[in-house]
Amino acid sequence: MRIATYVQGGTRHIGVVSADGQQITPFKVAAETAQRGALALIETLASGGALPPLDATPIAVSSVRLEAPLPMPRRNLWCVGRNYHAHARELSASVFKDNDSNPEAWPIVFTKVPECVVGPHDDVRLPGAGISDQIDYEAELAVVIGKGGKNITRANALGHVFGYTIVNDVTARDVQMRHQQWDMGKSFDTFCPMGPWIVTADELDGTKTRVRCWVNGELRQDGPTDNMIFDIPTLIETISRGITLYPGDVIATGTPAGVGMGLKPPRYIKTGDVIRVEIDGIGAIENRFI
Ligand code: MG
Question: What is the whole-number distance in angstroms between the Cα of residue 50 and the centre of ligand 1?
Fold first, then answer.
C-alpha cells in the first residue's frame, strides 16, 4: 500500500495511492486526524487498531498537492552518515575520514529537526550567502518505523519497519564541517524534501532497491541499497540500543556515491537547480532550489 498526505481544496487529507501512482483514494477520517498525516495511521496500526474506511471515489493525483507523507515527523529524524561503501571512498580524502576500513566501526548517527521537512515537489530555499554557499544533495532511502521498541535485535528489526519513503538529506557542507556535530548543517529550513508517499514494507524490500539522483537532468548518484556498510537491520538495532523507537520515527539510511562534494572540483547547488531523487519501488521526488 502507498500512503500519501496531500492537500485538496485547502484541506489536508490522507489517502491510498494506486499502484500506477495516478489515483488517490482518501481515508474517511476527522480533520484533526488528517492533520497529522500518515503518522495518525501508523500509530493506529501499531497499537493494534484497524485502518479507517476509504472514501468510495478515487481522485487524480494530478489534482492535489502532495505533501510529505509525514509533514511533521513526531521528533527529529534519525540519519546515518557515510553508509555506502562507494560514498565512504569518495569522501576519504576530505575532512570526513573513511569509516569503511575499520571492522569495529559503528554507524555515524545524527539528526535533522522535523521542521525542515517539505513536500516532494516543494521548493527548497537556499539560506543565502554569508550563511552557506556549499549546499549539497544526498539522495536517500528512509525507513519509517511501525511497531516501536527498544533494544530491537537485528533478527527482529525488519518486523518494526512500517514502510519506506524518499528523502533528500540536503546539507550545508561548510556548516557541517565547521561544527563538531552535524545537526546544524543538516537542519536549515526546507532541507528535507520527503515523499512522494510511504510504500509499506509488504510491497518493497528496502534492502534490495536502488537510489538515483539527477541534478538538472544529469545523473549524479546511482547506488543499490545492498551497498550499505551498515544494513537496515543493523541500523535499527544500533539506534534502538537503550533508546525507544516510536511508531512514525524516520531513519534516513545514508546516501550513495556521487554527492557534489565528492566531485573534482566539488559542484554545489545553485539557484534554479532542480534535483530529482528516484527509488525503485517507491517513485520520485523533485525539488527546485531557490
Ligand atoms: Mg545523509
Answer: 34
Q: Are residues 93 and 62 in the same domain?
A: no
Q: For residue range 94-132, list pLDDT tens digits in order.
A: 766 656 667 678 999 999 999 999 999 999 999 988 999
Residue 52 neighbours by CB distance under 10 Å:
17
190 alpha carbon – ligand 1 mean position (Å): 15
Number of domains in the chain: 2
Asked if residue 202 and residue 167 are part of one domain, the reply reads yes
Count H helices and E strands in the chain, helices first. Answer: 7, 18
Ligand 1 centroid to Cα of residue 140, in Å, is: 7
Whole-structure pTM value: 0.96
CA of 205 to the centre of ligand 1 (A): 20
* pLDDT tens string 139-161: 999 999 999 999 999 999 999 99
| Residue 120, in any domain of the structure | yes
